[in-house]
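To illustrate the input format used throughout this study, we show a single complete record. The first block contains the structure-token representation of the backbone; no residue identities are included at this stage. The design step must infer an amino acid for every position from geometry alone.
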């Protein structure tokens, strides 16, 4: 494969084509492309990990308004960071973001390291994200391999080895490094890195890639073979589990809702949430306790919430009661105007808004 890459893909050719295409057809006007400030680029990279550009645009601006630099983010409470992240999902990103800012302050004097091999030691920054920050901000000659780029490169190279195996993943990283630009790195590294991302997002898409518009078409093995969709090859499938949760929505006479902080690990870690029970029996056991009397209970229609590895079947039970009846250690009471500013899981917020 190494030999094939050298013979068939003169690195300069690939890099020049990607750089030229990016200048003419890529995305060049996104706010985080107008800066080389690693704080802002890092923030955008983390937000973009599992979220579309259109959604990130909104959050990115608001986040920077509230936390304009790494020190302000590090000084914030995790609760405030999660509240601002609320609705973006994948909350481990927000927790890592906060920890990363604190580590940059503590271990790097408030200045982001300027090399990928140092960036990758920070919480929440994987090898590809580290490469992207280093290429965008410092023009380091270092590769990235996010899902979009992995697709482009495996197709371009006809890389059919199973990426579920670490050694094959490693080989692909080596190929990615061998294709990097060699000249004018200050301009070409950010543009090449962005170009591969843009190609994967706009032309070399998972289904029905638009090969006729692709600058790499004449070099592309997958195109020549006639079946680009067979790349990338990865055999290990995600094992999905399903789980049922019973949600207790306790409302007092003033319309406030009882919320508690989720544990620091697991689903919705560190967010505010209504009390969760593994089954209806344990939920009803609480409500039939001596402190509760004269309460109205209503079972609402269950609904599905899909997480990366899990299908959560949520069963809401709404109970109206006097706040004094409720044991104090169960949580705190919040009025609608208060829970709006808290970090709440998206399905819980939606449900509470519909009450
Ligand atoms: S020619 Fe088609 S398959 Fe090959 S890199 Fe371009 S879009 Fe992807």
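Output of the design step:
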């Amino acid at each position: 494969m190494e030999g094939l890459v050298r013979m068939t893909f003169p690195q300069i050719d690939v890099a020049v084509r990607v750089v030229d295409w990016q200048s003419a057809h890529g995305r060049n006007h996104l706010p985080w492309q107008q800066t080389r400030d690693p704080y802002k680029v890092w923030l955008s990279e983390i937000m973009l990990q599992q979220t579309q550009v259109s959604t990130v645009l909104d959050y990115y601006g608001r986040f920077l308004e509230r936390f304009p630099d790494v020190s302000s983010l590090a000084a914030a409470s995790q609760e405030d960071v999660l509240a601002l992240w609320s609705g973006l999902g994948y909350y481990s990103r927000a927790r890592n973001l906060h920890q990363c800012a604190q580590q940059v302050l503590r271990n790097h004097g408030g200045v982001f390291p300027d090399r990928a091999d140092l960036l990758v030691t920070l919480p929440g920054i994987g090898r590809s994200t580290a490469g992207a920050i280093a290429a965008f901000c410092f023009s380091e000659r270092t590769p990235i391999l996010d899902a979009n780029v992995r697709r482009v490169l495996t197709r371009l190279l006809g890389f059919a080895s199973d990426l579920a195996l670490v050694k094959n993943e490693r080989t692909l990283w080596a190929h990615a490094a061998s294709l990097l630009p060699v000249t004018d790195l200050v301009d070409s590294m950010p543009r090449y890195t962005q170009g591969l991302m843009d190609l994967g997002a706009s032309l070399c898409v998972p289904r029905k890639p638009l090969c006729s518009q692709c600058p790499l078409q004449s070099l592309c093995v997958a195109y020549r073979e006639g079946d680009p969709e067979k790349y990338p090859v990865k055999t290990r499938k995600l094992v999905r589990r399903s789980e049922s949760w019973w949600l207790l929505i306790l409302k007092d006479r003033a319309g406030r809702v009882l919320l508690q902080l989720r544990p620091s690990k697991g689903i919705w870690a560190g967010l505010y949430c209504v009390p969760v029970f593994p089954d209806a029996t344990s939920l009803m056991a609480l409500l039939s306790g001596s402190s509760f009397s004269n309460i109205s209970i209503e079972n609402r229609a269950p609904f599905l919430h899909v997480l990366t590895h899990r299908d959560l079947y949520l069963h809401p039970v709404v109970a109206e009661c006097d706040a004094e009846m409720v044991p104090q250690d169960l949580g705190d009471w919040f009025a609608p105007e208060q829970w709006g500013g808290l970090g709440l899981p998206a399905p819980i917020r939606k449900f509470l808004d519909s009450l």
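Structural context for interpreting the output: Residues 152, 155-156, 203-204, 209, 211, 214, 216-217, 220, 222-223, 228 surround iron/sulfur cluster (CB under 6 Å). Confidence is low (pLDDT under 50) at residues 1-8.
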